[in-house]
Amino acid sequence: MRTADNGVYVAYVCCFFIPWKNPGIRKRQDALIEKAKEMEEKIMKKKVLSMLLVTSMLAGVVTGCGSSGEASGTSEATESVDEVKETETETEETTEEAETETEETTEETATASDSDKPECFGSLEGVTLTIGTSGTYAPFSYFAEDGTTLQGYDVDFLYALKDVLGFEIADETIQDMDYSPLGTSLSQGMLDVGAAALCATDERKKTMNFSKTYYDAGIVVVVSPDNETIKSVEDLTSGDYTVALQSGTIAYEYGVANLPESCIQSYDSQALAYKAVEDGQADATIYDLPGTAYSIKTGEIKLKTVGDEFYTGQAPYAVALSMSACDEYPDLIKDFDEAIDYLSETGVLDEIKAKWCE
Predict the structure, then answer these.
(1) DSSP SS3 for 305
(2) Is the Cα dihedral 118, 327, 175, 291 positive or negative?
(3) pLDDT at position 20, please?
(4) Residue 5: pLDDT band by 50, 70, 90 thresholds?
(5) 85, 183, 218, 318: least surrounded by Cβ within 10 Å?
(6) Cβ neighbours of residue 162 under 8 Å, at least 6 residues apart?
(7) Which residues, at least 6 apart from 342, have a Cβ–Cβ distance to it below 8 Å?
């Protein structure tokens, strides 16, 4: 691929496209590139001078100039050509030096790239995990318009974890189910992993393990657009209003602990809780702010939020890991934690959040 005339460009291109991170390598590469450019300029200047001298010599012959002039012109042209050859030789040596430096840079870059990978990278290769989510909570996990394709923040997040850790998903399918069955399946070991905007509550920690937090969300009160009497969650503590809550969620746990039992209506999905408020069967519902904001923004529900986001720090989303899976793979929690750190540090989680939650 290299010739005497354009080898410098090959070296330049090779050097330029190496994705290095080491400033020392970049500095050496820049010096070689600059030197190669200078050599190329010398070649061009020498060739032009040589051509002018040869042309002058030939013109002298044609017009009958003296033999001494011809000899002088020939000598100068020869010397010029020799200088060009010497410069080309120097350029070839510089090019070879640049190519050698490029090969060394490539090796160093590969080494640096490997060192950037977390210790957990590929730690679960050859391991197959059964994974579940809930397809009822946009924008974290819900079905596309075709009704069969799961999508959302948690779906992308699970596949990002798979790319880092190297595990396989059983039957190449993320199972979808409502929150209550999801929790039961994790508790009984029928699922190894669950990610569905699950909050790592003390109650859940009794029957399953959790990774570190990958998303922290608060909850909010949701009412019909024409409701002007409920202004915040404090208004719900009186017991004068019925509150629709999805079983198994952090909002449900909050309601059971802080609201009169007589005012709570339980539903299997948040979609039904929203519908109860829209149809006037309930005065309000409480749910995670990200999902509620998404549903309002897309027109999926005709409701509004009131008051401030609350219970922040109490609704951290984490990956649920069954105790049986952790027994079988003792480093499972550590591996997932390291993978989450890696995805956070490399900006992957920010990209997923921007795609689905903003």
Answers:
(1) strand
(2) negative
(3) 37
(4) very low
(5) 85
(6) 168, 169
(7) 117, 118, 120, 121, 164
As given in the structure block, the two tokens for residue 185 are 């399946």
The answer to whether the CB of 58 falls within 8 A of the CB of 69 is: no
The token duo for 322 is 């069954």
pLDDT band at 48 (very low <50, low <70, confident <90, very high): low
Burial class of residue 162 (count of CB atoms within 10 Å of its CB; 0-12, 13-18, 19+): middle
pLDDT band at 301 (very low <50, low <70, confident <90, very high): very high
Per-residue HEC secondary structure of 209-247 comes to EEEEEEEECCEEEEECCCCCCCCCHHHHHHCCCCEEEEC
- Please say whether the beta carbons of 287 and 298 come within 8 A: no
Cβ neighbours for 216, distance < 8 A, ≥ 6 positions apart: 312, 313, 315, 316, 317
CA dist 155 and 127 (Å) reads 19
**Residue partners of 182: CB distance under 8 A and separation at least 6:** 132, 133, 134, 191, 194, 196, 198, 248
Q: How many CB atoms lie within 10 A of CB 301?
A: 19
Q: What angle do CA 140, 145, 149 make, to 5 degrees?
A: 60
Q: What size, in residues, is the chain?
A: 358
- Entry pTM: 0.57
What are the phi and psi torsion angles at 295 (to 5°)? -65, -35
The pLDDT tens digits of the residues spanning 317-339 come to: 999 999 999 999 999 999 999 99
Beta-strand relationship, 209-216 and 193-194: unpaired
pLDDT given for residue 138 in this prediction: 86
pLDDT at 22: 45
What gap in Å lies between CA 263 and CA 337, rounded to an integer?
39
Residue 282's identity, in one-letter code, is A
- Residue 241 to residues 215, 233, 260: CA-CA distances in angstroms? 31, 11, 10
